[in-house]
Each structure stands twice: as structure tokens, then as C-alpha cells.
Design goal:
This protein is mainly alpha-helical. It has one domain. The chain is built from 7 helices and 2 strands; from the N terminus they run αααβαααβα. It has a two-stranded antiparallel sheet. α1 crosses α2 and α2 packs antiparallel against α4. The longest helix has 19 residues.
Length: 122
């Protein structure tokens, strides 16, 4: 049985990441005017961090990890990119199954769970 985190914890991690994306996009655009800039940063950040490390800074802060549904390993850049684009569209993330997996998780073969450092070192 996987310890599936609450929607509140997942949303808080997304908001922490979103704030970082707003700050970073402010270095090259006006994020409150140029709405594409923070979304682009979010897609790039999620692709990089989830693809290689299995968690974004916001996920790390809130004790979450996003790994492959099949083997529990980071999913790699291509699958993380699919997940990030679908997450940026918002609607796929709002349609969930009984395991609290959104369409973005199902399409990319990922699962969000609570982060356990002991498991990640195994």
C-alpha cells in the first residue's frame, strides 16, 4: 500500500513551486503581464527536477516525491516533460482516479507519494 498524500499537501507543493517560478520568470519577463513566462519556467523546472530527481523543490519542502508507477524510480526527462505539460494545462490534474492519480500522472506513468529518505537510498 502506497502512502498517498492529501490533495492539500500536493497543492501546497505546487504553490511553493509556482512562487519560485514567478520569481525566476521575473528575471527575464514580467510574469504578471507575460503569463507564458512562469508557465514555461514551471514546465522546464518540473521536467528537470521530476525527470532526474523525482521531486521539485516544493515537493521536497512538503515531503513528496513523484516516481514511476511501475518501478519507483525517477521517470526521466521525456515522461517528466509529458507530465509537466499536462500539469500546466491544469484540467488533467483535476481529473483523478481512486488512487488520487490525475490524468497527467496516468499519461506519464507516475505516482505521487510521501517522500521517505530511507526508501530513496535503497
Amino acid at each position: 500500500m502506497v502512502d498517498t498524500p492529501s490533495y492539500t499537501r500536493r497543492f501546497a507543493a505546487l504553490m511553493a513551486d509556482w512562487i519560485l517560478c514567478l520569481l525566476i520568470s521575473g528575471l527575464f519577463a514580467r510574469p504578471m503581464v507575460d503569463g507564458w513566462a512562469p508557465v514555461l519556467v514551471l514546465i522546464v523546472a518540473y521536467t528537470f527536477f521530476i525527470g532526474l530527481f523525482g521531486q521539485t523543490p516544493g515537493m521536497r519542502l512538503l515531503g513528496l516525491t513523484c516516481l514511476s508507477y511501475d518501478n519507483g524510480q525517477p521517470v526521466g526527462i521525456p515522461r517528466a516533460f509529458v507530465r509537466a505539460v499536462l500539469l500546466a494545462l491544469a484540467v488533467p490534474a483535476l481529473i483523478n482516479d481512486s488512487e488520487k492519480r490525475g490524468l497527467h500522472d496516468r499519461a506519464s506513468g507516475t505516482l505521487i507519494r510521501r517522500y521517505d529518505p530511507a526508501i530513496s537510498k535503497a
